[in-house]
Design the sequence.
C-alpha cells in the first residue's frame, strides 16, 4: 500500500522535473510515419462461460504504451520517464504487445492525432493547464477521484485488472483506486439523466467475440473530472495533444463506446470512441492493446488512494484537507 | 430448466459413487459399512451456480442499525434506536480498550474515519446503509460496494495470505463449507472502526465471516472477531443480508471523496 502511494506522487511530480531537465522539445514525427489505424480482426475464439459468453475472465495487467508514440505531437527525443508509460514493472514481467501488433499512437482518429476540441474547449483546457498547480485544477487522479472512461484503461503504474463474468454481466475491478464497473448485458435502458456516476453507466453486448460497451451518465460536478488521458501536462506539450489528459473537459453529453477485442488467450485490444458535441467537433477514437493476462502468481492488492493522499496534496498544492469532515448516512 | 437437469446429474453422480463404493466392498467380500450418507446441514433450496454452490450473485443490503452502533442503543439525533447485533449483548473489551472506545464515542463526529471518507473496512462495509454487489466465480468472489466504490476480492483458489502488508478492506481468503461461504480476513490495520459509536480494533484483528444462505433472497451473516490486544475473548455478531429485488437495480455512486472536495472548494 505504501509503495503505491509513493508511486502516485512520483507520477504527478515527474513530468515537471523531467521537463525542466530536457530543454526545448524537438520536432514531432510526421503523422504519416504511422500506418493508418484499422480495427483488429481476430480469428481467436475464446472458450465459453457456462452461460455462453466468450470467456475473457481473469487477471490482467496493462501493456505500457511504447514511449514517444502516445501522440505524433509529442517530441521524439523525450527521455524515458515513469509518467509516460515507461513505468517500472519491478514486481511483474513487463507485458508485451502480441506478435504482429502495430505500434502506433493511441489517438487513432482523427489521423493527425489531435484532439478535435472546439475552440472554447481548447481555450478552457489551456486555462486549466496553466493553473495545474492549484488544487481546483489539479489532475483528478492525483486527488484520487475516479478517473472515468476511457482513462481507467490508460496504462499507468497501478494497472491490474480483474475481469469477472457472471450470467448477464461482465464486471471489471480496476486495481487502481479500487474502481469497478458492473456491465449488464441484458439490453436494459440507460438510467435517468439525473443519475451521474464517476465511471459512467455501462450497457454492454457481445458482437461475436467482441464486448461492446456504451457508457453514459458521467459525473461532471468538479473541474478535475477528466475522463481521458494520463498524467499532469508536461510544459511545452500542445493543448491539442493527447499526451496528457490534463484539463480535457466534458459535458453532460459525453459518452463513450468501448470495444474489447480478444486477440489471443492472453491479450485484449481496447478501442474507445468518444463523443461530446459540446466539447469536440467530431467523435474521436483512441485504441491500444489494453490488457495482457497477468502472470500466474499475480495477486491484486488494495490501492487505497484517497486514504494516503493528505500529505501529497499538502506537498503539491499547499492545501491541508486533513481537517475536512463530511456527513455520511 | 437448468436447475432440475443439474440436480438430476448430481443425483446420478451420487448414485454412481455409492454404487462404486458398494461394488468395491463386494469385491473385498466384507459387509458394506453402515456409514450414513452425510446430510447437508443446510436447508438451502435456492438457485445454485454451475459448480453447485449457492448462487450469491446479485445486489444485497443489510437492514440494521449496526452501522450506528453494534450494541443496543436508544435513539439520538439522526440515529435510530437499535437492538444489539452482538452475541450476548456487549463487546468484551479489555478495560483500557473500553476507555478508548468511550473516548472514540465522545469524539465520533470528528474521529470516525468514515467522515474523512476513508474506506470503511470489514465488516462495516457489509452493514453500511448502502447496497453491495456480489460476483461469484469458482476461484474468486468479488464484492463491489456502493459506498466509496470499495471492493474486496475473496480468493477461493488457495492463494495464501500476503505477508507484511495492511489493507483497509483486509486480505480475504474464502472456502465453501457445505453451503456456507467462510471467509478469513486478516491484515486489516488498526485505523477502521466497526460503527459510528467508536467500536474499534487493533492490527491483530482476525475475522471469520460466515455467509449462510437461508433461501434465494436471505443470507445469515455471522462474523467472529478475534483481537487479543483489544478484547478479552473472541465475540460474534449476527445479521441478515437481504437481496435487493427491484427490477433493473444497479449500484449507483456514493463518491465520498468528491464530497470532501466539494466542501473544500466551496470554502476556498
Sequence:
Amino acid at each position: 500500500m505504501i509503495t503505491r502511494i509513493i508511486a502516485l506522487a512520483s507520477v504527478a511530480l515527474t513530468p515537471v522535473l523531467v521537463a525542466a531537465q530536457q530543454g526545448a522539445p524537438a520536432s514531432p514525427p510526421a503523422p504519416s510515419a504511422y500506418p493508418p489505424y484499422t480495427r483488429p480482426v481476430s480469428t481467436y475464439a475464446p472458450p465459453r462461460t457456462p452461460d455462453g459468453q466468450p470467456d475473457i475472465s481473469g487477471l490482467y495487467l496493462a501493456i505500457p504504451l511504447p514511449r514517444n508514440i502516445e501522440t505524433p505531437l509529442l517530441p521524439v527525443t523525450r527521455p524515458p520517464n515513469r509518467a509516460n508509460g515507461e513505468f517500472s514493472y519491478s514486481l511483474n514481467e513487463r507485458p508485451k504487445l502480441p506478435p504482429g501488433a502495430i505500434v502506433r499512437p493511441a489517438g487513432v482518429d482523427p489521423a493527425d492525432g489531435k484532439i478535435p476540441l472546439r475552440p472554447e474547449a481548447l481555450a478552457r483546457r489551456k486555462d486549466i493547464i496553466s493553473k495545474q498547480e492549484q488544487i481546483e485544477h489539479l489532475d483528478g487522479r492525483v486527488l484520487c477521484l475516479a478517473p472515468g472512461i476511457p482513462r481507467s484503461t490508460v496504462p499507468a503504474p497501478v494497472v491490474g485488472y480483474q475481469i469477472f463474468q457472471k450470467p448477464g454481466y461482465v464486471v471489471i475491478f480496476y486495481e487502481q483506486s479500487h474502481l469497478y464497473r458492473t456491465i449488464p448485458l441484458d439490453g436494459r435502458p440507460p438510467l435517468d439523466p439525473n443519475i451521474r456516476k464517476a465511471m459512467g453507466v455501462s450497457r454492454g453486448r457481445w458482437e461475436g467475440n467482441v464486448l461492446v460497451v456504451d457508457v453514459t451518465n458521467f459525473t461532471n460536478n468538479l473541474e478535475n473530472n477528466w475522463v481521458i488521458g494520463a498524467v499532469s501536462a508536461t510544459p511545452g506539450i500542445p493543448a491539442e495533444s493527447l499526451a496528457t489528459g490534463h484539463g480535457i473537459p466534458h459535458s453532460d453529453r459525453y459518452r463513450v463506446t468501448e470495444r474489447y477485442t480478444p486477440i489471443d488467450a492472453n491479450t485484449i485490444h481496447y478501442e474507445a470512441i468518444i463523443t461530446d458535441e459540446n466539447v469536440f467537433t467530431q467523435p474521436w477514437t483512441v485504441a491500444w492493446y489494453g490488457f495482457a493476462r497477468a502472470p500466474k502468481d499475480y495477486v491484486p492488492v488494495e490501492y487505497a488512494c484517497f486514504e494516503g493522499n493528505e500529505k501529497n496534496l499538502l506537498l503539491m498544492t499547499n492545501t491541508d484537507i486533513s481537517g475536512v469532515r463530511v456527513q455520511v448516512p | 430448466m437448468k436447475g432440475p437437469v443439474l440436480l438430476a446429474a448430481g443425483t446420478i453422480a451420487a448414485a454412481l459413487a455409492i454404487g462404486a463404493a458398494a461394488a468395491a466392498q463386494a469385491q473385498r467380500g466384507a459387509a458394506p459399512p453402515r456409514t450414513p450418507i452425510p446430510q447437508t446441514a443446510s436447508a438451502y433450496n435456492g438457485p445454485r451456480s454451475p459448480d453447485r454452490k449457492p448462487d450469491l450473485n446479485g445486489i444485497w443490503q443489510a437492514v440494521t442499525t449496526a452501522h450506528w452502533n453494534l450494541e443496543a442503543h436508544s435513539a439520538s439525533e439522526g440515529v435510530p434506536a437499535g437492538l444489539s447485533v452482538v452475541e450476548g449483548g456487549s463487546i468484551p473489551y479489555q478495560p483500557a480498550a473500553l476507555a478508548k472506545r468511550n473516548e472514540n464515542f465522545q469524539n465520533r463526529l470528528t474521529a470516525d474515519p468514515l467522515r474523512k471518507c476513508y474506506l470503511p473496512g470489514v465488516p462495516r462495509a457489509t452493514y453500511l446503509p448502502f447496497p453491495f454487489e456480489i460476483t461469484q466465480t469458482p476461484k474468486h468472489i468479488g464484492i463491489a460496494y456502493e459506498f466509496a466504490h470499495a471492493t474486496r476480492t475473496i480468493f477461493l483458489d488457495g492463494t495464501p495470505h500476503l505477508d507484511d502488508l495492511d489493507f483497509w478492506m483486509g486480505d480475504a481468503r474464502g472456502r465453501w463449507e457445505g453451503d456456507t461461504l467462510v471467509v478469513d480476513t486478516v491484515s486489516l490495520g488498526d485505523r477502521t472502526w466497526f460503527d459510528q459509536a467508536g467500536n474499534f480494533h487493533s492490527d491483530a484483528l482476525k475475522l471469520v465471516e460466515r455467509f449462510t444462505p437461508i433461501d434465494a433472497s436471505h443470507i445469515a451473516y455471522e462474523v467472529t472477531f478475534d483481537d487479543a490486544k483489544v478484547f478479552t475473548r473472541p465475540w460474534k455478531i449476527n445479521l441478515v443480508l437481504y437481496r435487493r429485488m427491484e427490477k433493473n437495480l444497479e449500484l449507483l455512486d456514493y463518491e465520498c471523496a468528491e464530497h470532501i472536495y466539494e466542501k473544500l472548494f466551496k470554502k476556498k
